[in-house]
Amino acid sequence: MVKKKYVVITAVVLAAIVFVSISRIDTEEHKIKKQFDKFSELAAKKPSESAFIMVRKAKDIAELFDRQCILNTRFEELSGQYSSQEIQALAMRGRLMFSELSLKFHDIDISIAGENRADVTFTAKLSGSLKSKEHLSEAHEFRCVLNNVDDSWVFSEFELVEVLEK
Fold first, then answer.
1. How far is 27 from 21, CA to CA, in rounded Å?
2. Please, is 31 exposed, middle or buried when counting C-beta atoms within 10 Å of its C-beta (0-12, 13-18, 19+)?
3. Domain residues for 82?
4. What's the burial of 102, exposed, middle or buried (CB within 10 Å: 0-12/13-18/19+)?
5. Is the residue at 114 inside a domain?
6. Is residue 100 a part of any domain in this protein?
7. 114 confidence band (pLDDT: 50, 70, 90)
8. How far apart are CA 65 and CA 119, in angstroms?
9. Domain assignment of residue 90, yes or no
């Protein structure tokens, strides 16, 4: 009888540990997806956006990034390591080129790699109207790394994935 009681208690404790582990992963994945949603929301620009809002959004975008962020692309002038201040400046410069802008993330696949790191693959779709009235619409696949810093997931590395064209 006593053995049966210990077996039941052990089974309940193990089930609770498994449940907490699984729900923690789901919670962390949810937090990461929220960062992508926030990035998309902050990147969006309407034609009527004021300079004050543009500066605030660029500052908020920079806060989504680690103190140092690595960007690897086929464009040599964009590849490199950036501080959060440089990210803010890039966000402002990029947003100044557009009268209207949208950045959407699709097919987000998250792999939690330890307590403080997540590897993510996704497709980013950028569309908008340049101030020169030219319309732009591009989609690219990326791999990125997010780090958990002070219980907040921040972007720390982006790599453009080259997709072969048919």
1. 10
2. middle
3. 2-161
4. middle
5. yes
6. yes
7. confident
8. 15
9. yes
Number of structural domains (the chain) is: 1
Predicted TM-score of the model (pTM): 0.80
Return the sign of the alpha-carbon dihedral for residues 116, 32, 69, 74.
Answer: positive
Compute the Cα dihedral for 38, 79, 90, 163 and give only its sign. negative
Question: pLDDT exceeding 70 applies to what percent of the chain?
Answer: 83
CATH number at residue 62: 3.10.450.50
- Distance between CA atoms of 91 and 42, rounded to whole angstroms? 10
Show the DSSP H helices in the chain as ranges. 2-43, 51-62, 84-96
Q: Which amino acid is at 76?
A: E
HSE of 150 in the Cβ direction (CA atoms, 13 Å)?
A: 5
What are the percentages of helix, strand and coil residues in the chain, rounded to 5?
A: 40, 40, 20
Q: Is 166 part of any domain? A: no
